[in-house]
Amino acid sequence: MSRPRAHIVGVGESRYTRWGKIGDVTEHALACQAIQRAVADAGLSMDDVDGLASFAEDRNEAVFLAAELGLPALRFGNMVWMPGGGGGCAAISNAAMAVETGQAAVVVVYRSLCQGQFFRFGTGGMNAAAPADPEPPKLQQAKSLMLASIGFSMPYGLLMAAAAYALPTRRHMHLYGTTSEQLGMLAVTFREHASRNPRAVMGGRPMTLEDHQASPMIADPHRLFDCCLESDGACAVVVTTEERARDLAKRPVEILASEQGAPKGYAFGPFSNANIADELYATGGCEEMAGRLWSKAGLGPSDVDVAQLYEHFTGCVLMQLEDYGFCKRGEGGPFIESGALAWKGGSLPTNTHGGSLSEAYIHGLNHVVEGVRSLRGESTSPVDNAEVCLVTSAACVPSSAILLGRR
Amino acid sequence: MSERFFPDSMPPPLADTTTLPWWQAAAEHRLVVQRCTSCEHTRLPPAPVCPECRSADSDWKEVSGRGEVYTYTIVHRPIAAGQELPYVIAVIALEGAGGVRIISNLVDVNPDEIEIGSPVELVWEDMSADLAIPRFRPMGR
Ligand SMILES: [Zn+2]
């Protein structure tokens, strides 16, 4: 007996803006808007929805959203434990497990970010002025495992993501001769893709390799244009069963396989994993998980027509290309240089929406949205006859990935 | 202005009962790694169970404080008000520590001269009577 197959039947989003530009609506109101649009895109009603799933310590708790949206009953409310952007595809995976096992019939995965309404990630003591006559710094009691762990990174100023992810990328450069220009070419390629995408925050801002090289250094080797945007916006993805998917509004997209996890000792990624195995350090940490994904789907890298790869930083995409087997270990730089990721003429058109570097940073759930559109023929950078799309979540942290197939 | 490596507005470090002995050793200028007394596997940060043999028994092994740069980043953005830029975060592979690496800073260094594999040595920064932070500088500075 074949197992029931979960499908994605609807996608939707709010407007995307630069960081802090959405102040007139709350983050959870924006989540509601994205969820409603995704449900409408599927041709479903909110009365059909009985599950909500999210990731990355979502402030917009499913129990409140279910009440606000008038769900008749919440049968499945789920949060992924992979940190930050690593859990987006895992949330899709959990939604798929829920509908495949009958825990729920229609699960909406959502993500809303209006970080300007909260605090800025990775700023440490930036907002606190030093007192005139300060007490000498003293050891404080860590009231959580996370805070105790931070005791081994914060005293060294390792608070900013751009610095943390620079560490494996710098070692990759040392081991394999990867260059800043190769990273830059990746950013330039995704910016070109964004130029056709009216949703893209950076759609009207062309970028050349010279622009990339001239952008200010943030945390070497990360220049400004190696770093993802910081954005306000929300998006949502509707997951249901194959049976339910058959007679809905749009062509359904099948979830061929999904995987999540982390290699041994990975903890919170480069903020805390200085002691992972040497052969893992200059990788995205996804190689073993990728192997499970390919074997579950009965597919391999050469079957992928289009990819949406999470990019918090350019180097983390480069290492994913190696982890997922699109090129050999250490050859990510030359692979990018060959133009492989370009919409026109590339062997692996990647981030056809512009990605987090150029569309918007919605913790990569917008990569799932684009993955669905690329198989429906709705992408603004369409790949002809695309049948298989790989979507990944943040690498160099515990991660997740899904393989999507056109029906 | 602070004489310290980071301004005083930086939040102080945090410890729980698992990590406290490491900080107490640091305050005495002893750099230690946690060692499993069952299988000798060394680990950092301190953790309640050995990830290799799952024993909860451990002691503390003092290391020389020499090591080499495993990877690094030169940070050009402040993470605390009034901070000197750039500063260098590095992962140091510690000598005689059973392969253990530590996240720290490189101090007294020209950022243009940092190379992966280059030798470094420990230098303590005393924050207060009960708190010292290990940082590293190029060997022989
Ligand atoms: Zn042991």
Relevant terms:
heterodimer, A: 407 residues, alpha+beta, Peroxisomal Thiolase, Chain A, domain 1, ten-stranded mixed sheet, two-stranded antiparallel sheet, globular, B: 141 residues, mainly beta, OB fold (Dihydrolipoamide Acetyltransferase, E2P), five-stranded antiparallel sheet, three-stranded antiparallel sheet, 6% helix, 40% strand, binds zinc ion
Concise structural overview:
Chain A has 407 residues and is an alpha+beta fold. Chain A has helices spanning 27-42, 62-68, 88-100, 145-150, 161-164, 166-176, 180-194, 209-214, 242-245, 278-281, 287-297, 314-323, 332-337, 355-358, 365-376; strands at residues 6-13, 17-18, 51-54, 76-79, 106-114, 140-141, 217-219, 222-223, 231-241, 253-261, 306-308, 388-392, 399-406. The longest helix of chain A has 16 residues, at 27-42.
What is the CATH topology classification name of chain A? Peroxisomal Thiolase, Chain A, domain 1
Describe the sheet with the most strands of chain B: 5 strands, antiparallel
Q: What is the residue-mean pLDDT of chain A, rounded to a whole number?
A: 94
Cofactors and ligands present?
Answer: zinc ion
Distance between the termini of chain B: 25 Å
How would you classify the helix and strand content of chain A by structural class? alpha+beta
Helix fraction of chain B by DSSP (H/I, runs of at least 4): under 10%
Structural overview:
The complex is a heterodimer of chains A (407) and B (141). Chain A is α+β, with helices and mostly antiparallel strands and 407 residues long. Chain A has a single domain (7-117, 228-406), classed as 3-Layer(aba) Sandwich (Peroxisomal Thiolase, Chain A, domain 1). Helix content of chain A is 32%, strand content 17%. Chain A contains 15 helices and 13 strands. Chain A has helices at 27-42, 62-68, 88-100, 145-150, 161-164, 166-176, 180-194, 209-214, 242-245, 278-281, 287-297, 314-323, 332-337, 355-358, 365-376, and strands at residues 6-13, 17-18, 51-54, 76-79, 106-114, 140-141, 217-219, 222-223, 231-241, 253-261, 306-308, 388-392, 399-406. In chain A, strands 1, 2, 3, 4, 5, 9, 10, 11, 12 and 13 form a ten-stranded mixed beta sheet that branches. Chain A has a two-stranded antiparallel ribbon with strand order 7-8. The radius of gyration of chain A is 20 Å and the shape is globular. Chain B is mostly beta strands and 141 residues long. Helix content of chain B is 6%, strand content 40%. Chain B has one helix at residues 20-27; strands at 14-15, 32-36, 42-43, 58-62, 66-75, 87-94, 101-106, 119-128, 131-138. In chain B, a hairpin with a 2-residue loop joins strand 8 and strand 9 (131-138). Chain B is globular, with a radius of gyration of 16 Å. The two termini of chain B are 25 Å apart. The relative contact order of chain B is 0.21. At the A-B interface, strand 6, helix 4, helix 6 and strand 7 of A face strand 1, strand 5, strand 6, strand 7 and strand 9 of B. The complex binds zinc ion. Zinc ion (ZN) binds at residues 36, 38-39, 41, 50, 52-53, 55 of chain B.
